[in-house]
User: Fold these one by one.
Assistant:
Number 1:
Amino acid sequence: MALNEDNVRSIAHLARLSMTDEERGHYTEELSTILDFVEVMRSIDTTDVVPMAHPHHATQRLRPDVVTETDQREKFQHQAPATEDGLYLVPKVID
Amino acid sequence: MQWETVIGLEIHTQLATNSKIFSGASTAFGAEPNTQACAVDLGLPGVLPVLNQEAVKMAVKFGLAVNAEIGMRSIFARKNYFYPDLPKGYQISQFELPIVGKGSIDIRVDVAEPKRIAITRAHLEEDAGKSLHEDFHGMTGIDLNRAGTPLLEIVSEPDMRSAKEAVAYARKIHSLVQYLQICDGNMQEGSFRVDANVSVRLRGEDALGTRTEIKNVNSFRFLERAINFEVERQIDVLEAGGKVVQETRLYDADLDETRSMRTKEEANDYRYFPDPDLLPVELDDAFIAQIQTTLPELPDAKRQRFMADYALQETDADLLTASREMADYFESAVKTSGGQAKLVSNWLTTELTGRLNKEDKSLGESPVAAIQLGELVRRIADNTISGKIAKQVFDVMWQSGESPDEIIEAQGLKQITDEGAIEAMVDEVIAANPEQVEQFKAGKAKVMGFFVGQVMKASKGKANPQQINALLNAKLKE
């Protein structure tokens, strides 16, 4: 298997996902199957293939540097669980 | 043991656009919290980032100025991590295929020969918001005005070998981005942020030692101190038989030390992947050529020209080209002065700079404009006033903002060049001081200074010193 349960535990932590032991076993197997398939694809010679950055064959449109947004703080903060002095409040984060 | 310091810098420059990198919200500094954070910046569902063309131009401008390979095709990636001032849970940045590739810049540290520092890459990304940890009933306040502000992160190779070199490089980049007018360079407001990767190794070794990353440095002085502290710390650890731990350390200016951030012992894994919301950016030759035409004269070229055209010493040319503002001020003043480059350079680098430093002002805030300083120098050069009186005039200019001619006229400071008037004063001084005249005649040449001083005093500093000297010489030797 490409992954063990510890790998899945740390991936889940990075993504802030909680899961039961049973789920972890399940995901370890499922994700490993995907990675095994990646191994299969790796055996193909892709030397001259440009990596795909996006499925569309289009390029990024650029926007003129103009301020178009107005202040809608009140509207946005109406939906926030906690605000004060114009700030969004979140549980204390200490670096 | 002989240790060698190895430093590489990551510099985040805030690009001077009007709107954000992916949204039309304003980037102006100092607005009320969250009044410049729109739906895109807040990462609300259903929004789509659209790239700011000016940010791309500015990045390319920088790339051209450091002779870098420009990424004709560059892509944006998501850098994933959780922090409340990053509402989307990822920062849009560039990982593979940055907009600016390998380039270089030359620095000078106490030697005539420049040292070339390689630039690994420079990429576009969005800034995060700000967390305010002051007390909000045990909560943290989040201001997202800064979220989405365009940054150009400039990454150097580990080419620097001392804190001094690191500072010289950082200053050079700082000056360059301001020359290019792509960043205001304000370190206090966080428009120019420097992180240093520092390691040490035994001299002669090829492999790099384990590095630490120093953050939270908001001045060049602190950058030098922080690196020096960190180098000493690492050497102490290694000499005591320990190992340097790869970690991020914060510089504390009050205690003059770096401290571990003590984040959980867990490798950061940003799980970069191409952002599906943004298409690859493709540039064409015409776009690059157009930007090339907007490049100003760069610091190194200007320095060479100043030395050649104005016959300036290297040190003066360095000072005068350190910022575009300074260089422009100098050239404007020289023009008004009638080409008195050396004199303008002296006044600018000593008198004016000294006064600005004393009052903690920038050149832009100087009460004496370039044209006024040029006029003052012109009046010295054409003998309207002496250098000594000029300092008096300068004082008044500084206080009142009046032009030198107005001040000279109003206060009657015009230099006395009337031979007869000076001669009368010389005669008076000689007559009043027979003792000193005897001393002079007995061969005590130093008394000459006394006489010059007395005549100057009699003229209230206005007599032409060359004429005083000539007259005194002639009369005392009679």
Number 2:
Amino acid sequence: MLASIPVRLWEHAAGWEAGLTQDTTVLEVSVWRGTALDGAYELFEVPAHENQTILDVVSWIQQYADASLTYRFACRVGMCGSCAMMVNDQPRWTCRTHVKKVLKDRRVRIGPLRNLPVIKDLAVDMDRFFDKWVAAGGAHVPSAGRGDPIPAVDPEESARVKASAGIECINCSICYAACDTVAGNPDYLGPAALQRAWTLLNDAKHDARAQILDAVSGTGGCHNCHSMGSCTVFCPNDLDPMSAIAGLKRETARGFFRRRGG
Amino acid sequence: MLDLRLYMLQRITALIMAPLTLGHIAVMIYAVQGGLSAEEILGRTQGSLFWFLFYGSFVVAVSLHASIGLRVILHETMGLAGRTLSAATLGVAAGLLFMGVQALIAVTWPVSAI
């Protein structure tokens, strides 16, 4: 069903100024409406602009076509990690995804993130994602108190380099949505939580490093990863969770022999 | 579903199988090129402690390795979990072990004892 759209005059004017023809000024946007159990894609016609992100498109629909559309965003500049959605069935940060990059014959399909329960429309329940983040030992435990001297950190030191590799994670859950192992094994902690665990394992300022190897060695732990690499391919910040998980596998295997060797 | 214990067991059995597989292929090529008959091969393997241990460890490693691998597939593609998954894993391991031990006895057990 095609939704009726109250297109404002200035929207069209922007299109004409950009030198676009009538045919190319409208995008056909399919948006998921409803929950995971009960819903369908609904088609909206959205005015096209020269510079336009997927988040702009979703915001336009919510502001001018259907105010009941539910979605989540905050910073709009790729820092907060809250606007991730499935765009043409691939997880993306929508505020930094240009429409032109994903448009297929004027059409684009926008859905809620995979592998997480849908609350409504494009908003998913992130509880499971963050619960696993904590279960993997991801909460920071300081190794020094407020009154203690600040220990020096050498940015070139081997462990620090490994820790620094993952600290730009914005917890957008794109890697979690991209992971086929999570899709098949809902108990699996997932790439973001395990990368966080690897980061803290290599962080000299974290005081619970010994517990991390136990936290990632359970039935949903790092050993379930098949190294398919979707997490690393789709990470919008170019991080490498797959290698972080490989690091956890190596360390847990070493720990396995160390414990048996006394 | 796959914890550290099962992961290590699968990796260690893979390490055991790698040289055994190469040894098995090498023996097959040697036997075929040399024109050995089945009787001649069995004459050398039956009653041999070396070949009993060689293929015996192979059978045990395969049973453990394959059942853990199938456990992952059964869980992720068919949704088996809990006791059902454990029973399926043990069932596969027992089946492979049974068939493997049968072949092992046929090839390496002393003729007089069969």
Number 3:
Amino acid sequence: MLKSIFTFLAASVLLVSTANAETVKLALIDPLSGAMAGAGQPALSHMQFEAERLNAKGGLNGNKIEIVGYDNKVNPQESLVQLQKAIDDGVRYIVQGNGSSVASALISAVDKHNRRNPGKEVLFLNYAAVDPAFTNERCTFWHFRFDANADMKMNAITSWMADRKDIKKVYLINQDYSFGHAVSEAAREMLKEKRPDIEVVGNDFHPLGKVKDFTPYVSKIKASGADAVITGNWGQDITLLVKAAADYGLQAPFLTYYGASSGVVTQTGDKGVDRIYQINEYYGDFDDPEMAKRQVAMYKEKGWDFYYLRLSTMMEMLKKATDQAKSIDPVKVAFTLEDLSMDTPTGEVTMRKSDHQIQLPLFMSVMKGDMKYGAEGTDYNFHKIAEISREDVSLPTTCEMRRPKQ
Amino acid sequence: MLEVIIFSLLNGILYGLLLFMLSSGLTLIFSMMGVLNFAHASFYMLGAYFAYSLGMHIGFWPSLILAPILVAVVGALVERFGLRRVHVNGHVAELLFTFGLAYVIDEVVRLIWGTVPVAYMAPASLQQPLFNLFGVEYSMFRGVAMLIAILMFVALWFLLKKTRVGMMIRAALTHGEMVGHLGHNVPRLFMCVFGFGCALAGLAGVIGGPLLTTEPGMAATLGPIVFVVVVVGGMGSLPGAFYASLLIGLLQTFFVAIDASIGDILNGIGMNVDPYGEVTGITLANLAPMTPFILLVLILIFRPRGLMGELEP
Amino acid sequence: MNDLTAVAPRQSRFSWRGLAPWVISLVVLMVIPLLVSSGTAFTLLNLIAINIVFALSYNMLLGQGGMLSFGHAVFFGLGSYAAMHVMNLIDDASYAGEGFWAHFPVLGLPLVGMLAGGLAALIVGWPFCRRAGTAFAMITLGLGELAAAAGQMFPSVFGGEAGVVSNRMVGPQWFGLELAQSADVYWFMAFWLFVAVLGMWAFTRTPLGRLSNAVRDNAERLQFIGYQPRNVRFMVFIASGAFGGLAGAMAAVNFEIITPESLGLVPSGLALLMAAVGGLGVFYGPIVGAIVVTLMNSLLSDYTDASILYVGLIFLAIVMFAPRGLGGGIEQVRVAWRDGELARRLPGWLSGAVAVLLFAAGLTVLVELLFQWRHGQDELAQVLGMNFDPRLPWGWLAMVVFFAAGVLVKRATNKLREDNA
């Protein structure tokens, strides 16, 4: 009797494991509950949406994609616990984006794991952590970044500003932590190079997520006579900043990294129109009809906007790499993925071999009302005003990649 | 320079008044029940969300009245069925209860209204500029918010000093047992005061919601600052809370406007340091949002009873 | 909540009975690795070990000293940073092959953390310890906020947002402990867990530990008999900071990364949560609390999107209905067992537990239904393997049934519990 139960159990375990062999799990380690869930949930929905589409087209080298969410509450240490859980669940592809602190923890943990467990390597696909260090001095073979890093985005913003001779005075306001400082520093350096005539009339830092009332900062900006404001703020800090500026009648455009992140459009409404500019790989009034269809379908099915084009790019590139390598083994896929190029609706993108940083064109867009496809259920969205070519975005790297033996 | 001073003054006062709307309720509750209500800012958040949901159906002005009343009901229920139960276990248990309550209210708000901010806006009629000074607009809503805050302050003063209920509350504050012996229902009075304090926080939420943003994190960021106000003003002192609110509002706003760094100041008094170093490069503007906490620590070390408090906490 | 520890122990004479819990826990610690093998299990065990030390060190303040702190993570974080920087020193010195640090084993890092935590408490603590109660709570709140802000402002020490990273596989290896896998790290954690818990338990037996209970219960009387409450609080504060730092150093070795947010209010709140859920009045309460809360934090989110809400509700329920916490409950059962009253009391307790479970089930259905109703994507609320559609009445009905059953069971068995009292 006992023996039969045991064989039954063993058989069912076997059954489960063979079933697993036909799916490739992608683990999203991001905040899925708590204060920052608004940043992680749309990414999870987006990946599920794309997985359904790609599975219909054959999945990864014939294997079905399964998206598994692991909640890390944006805490680096909790992320490592979730990473271990994912690895034990048989996940070989880790996806993460929110928070450079988490990305930093994952990069070093994945690197150590792969060195200590040969044959069980894991890849880390980063879709939004933008600290330039990850593809420079801290680059590893196991990390791939599908988003432009902070310096590349600034390169794009300043390239765009190079032709805007009406901008003479610029105000920098950023969050007081490493990312905010990196944005401010990059802005000052690149402006000096591309537009030496521009005067930086202010360079403010405020604590991350602590400021409730931005009006004092706005009155300072107003008093400085700035023609444009550059900010890397995200989350509440961008919403509150723009709202305060609108209340004040400050007309200067806000050149932002994350002006379209979820909640901003809803919160600012009319006040954001013609005021919030964003540099991104995506914009709201997408001209490609196929993309527009997906955009509408995604909002209808998942309740979140099609914001992370780079997640689609990431998954399509992964599909191309697995199909080309005829394998889903992470090491083989990694060797195919580096130096892989692909056509996307916004142009050709390449995963640069030397540092695993994607090379892609970026777009400057501005918030407008009465758009055909509105964001967050409103009729506001971001309208493309300029494309910055791949060459103008790209930056050299200091990465000295150490590769495993093939 | 003049415009910076004028607008910093206006903004500082408005922010200070908003803080006072929150801290007055907290002070009332504290002086009556001896409980520092950790969930007070959560009631502020509830006020904003109630006003947002109600406002979609009945408009801004009715919800300005109705939302605080709803918050008061929630607060009274919390007191009746939660706090009163915990009361027998002492002050630490009460503090823990309100701490847990803040946690739960935050999560329930996320559950019901979602994690992203909601579109709670001032009515269109109030979005026009009130006046225009040095080319800077000051929106009507800010003016109205300031007016409501001042009206509330006057009403509160009138209620406490000039009415029978106010007399009872003041008596219960200092001589709770005596009031009970005189035949008044002290537990019910407690419940009402708790509800009333929450209603004040709710009112602050109705105004603060459109002014700042209505999102699930709004309680967690403002909560600690309200404690600072209450402690700096002197625990249990309403005038103290008023002055501390304005002080912190103005201090924060003016510090933002000052770009002098620690290095500049040190250099000014004759020391020779690098004005761009990691420590010396910190400007007063960087420190502005931290000033309440610096003030808190300094006050507790050097004048533990606060600005106007009679007793040490 | 104090009556359990306030019971004066008989003269601390050596007894086999008193040694039993330690021997048992030692055996448990040795046996666990034979039973589990998955990396996740070890990772969770290591995390639990860290949190146990953290929660116990917090309870030195709150449970034993009566000081409610909202800034305990500052010492945890500073201990962690100190250990991390020393780990990097060891790394550098090992490359060079010389210097003091080249001979310092990673195994000894918790001592560094302890030193850092204690030192930090020594430097800031004196003005804090004048009063307990609200003033202490507020000043530690300020300390927590300031430390968290400073952590972001000084990247050369705290590493900015990305934090400080290191590698634990450096320096001399002791006892052949390579520390490569989480299973190796387990032995490190088990050792330090045992040492730290023993140390903190021993602390409660020292005159200072006794005085800290006295200062909690009645500071004035303590003053009358000639002790300065402030001095006592200060020394407890330092000891608690030191053990907090020790927990931080354990975390540094476990995660090999530390970021400024570990100084902030969220981890401080976690310590409070663990201690209070486990019970402040019993020495082993925070241990129970740390195990429960850690598991809930890391595993519950796999099953529901409202995991934080459940943790909050459990905390609230414990504060309201079981102020002695889970540890207090265990202690009650143990005392009843010792007095031979367990058989008489058990029916009342078990029926009470059934009522609580029914309420919990009803609440879970309610939360999940609400969640699906507001942001449903799979549209069905899943509770205990059952699927409920929020648009149909069945789920709501089930909730009402659960609640009603809970009330009925409670009413019907009230008598059983009254007899006990």
